[in-house]
Amino acid sequence: GSLPKWVVNKSSQFLAPKAMKKMYKACLKYPEWKQKHDPHFKPWLFPEQSRLPALALSELSLQHADSLENIDESSLAESKEDRGDGSDEDSLT
Question: What's the pLDDT tens digit per position in 34-80?
Fold first, then answer.
């Protein structure tokens, strides 16, 4: 569904900055926390430390971005259910 524009505007004005402040504060505390919690475990730097199961390369497939850009949706009609009950189009009448 789609959100009314006013909801998006309000959330970007108030919720997003609040979330960023919390994230910033958490990031400042991270070095101290990491020193107490397995400080040498850094799988983002040393992949051999990863505890996740390895994925076989044969299971991966390439998907080229240029094939995604040429999707023609011009013949599709948007129904009221696709827009959701609270869409902006419904509130104009």
Answer: 999 999 999 999 999 999 998 888 888 877 776 666 667 777 777 66
| Inter-residue contact 43 to 50 (CB < 8 Å) | yes
CA distance 87 to 77: 16
* CA dist., res. 35 & res. 33, Å (int): 5
- Report d(CA 61, CA 80) in Å as an integer: 36
Residue 83, both tokens:
């827009």
Any residues with CB less than 8 A from the CB of 4 and at least 6 apart, and which? 86, 87, 88, 91
